[in-house]
Amino acid sequence: MSDVTVDEIIDACPCITNKIIEYLENFLYSIQKFEHMIDGVLNFKDLISDANKIQEWLENYNKEVTDKFTVDVVCLERISEEIEELKVLQNSLHENIAENEKKVDILKGKLSAFNKKNESLADMRDEIQMYKLLTNTKFIYKGSNVSGYIAGKKIESFDMDPETLSKSDIINSLYNKVKNVSLN
Hints:
Structural class: mainly alpha
Number of helices: 4
Strand order of the largest sheet: 1-2-3
Distance between the termini: 106 Å
Number of domains: 2
Radius of gyration: 50 Å
Helix content: over 70%
Order of helices and strands: HHHEEEH
Largest sheet: 3 strands, antiparallel
Number of strands: 3
Shape: rod-shaped
């Protein structure tokens, strides 16, 4: 902790200036008493007693102000440290909020894509059901191949590998098989 100057005390507590003015007024009053003493109005002992009281009062007041100023400086230092800690915490919270907002945006995008995919799957399921009913096609869900049979005037089976054939090739092949079964 650094030493406190008189200027710092005056800047920190305007009431000090008023006390100094009061002291100077008392001192001026004492001087006036001293002048009257010379004129025989007061005696010298009263003047010394008043001067001693003023000096004692100033010393006590100076000690009180210095002690209070020291306590205030310590409190201000603690408050300043706490403010810095709160600023760090606030910055951390803002960063967390920004990260969480990004995560929420990503999750919203995934949810939207998932919902669209579910809608698309539901539509595809309905189309496949309609196709199966119209064409008497039965799919066998084993492995990754597209396999099953088509029942009409005759039964024709199919087994196609989607890794070697394009979607278009698979669709065209199924269409031709449905056409052959229903025409023959």
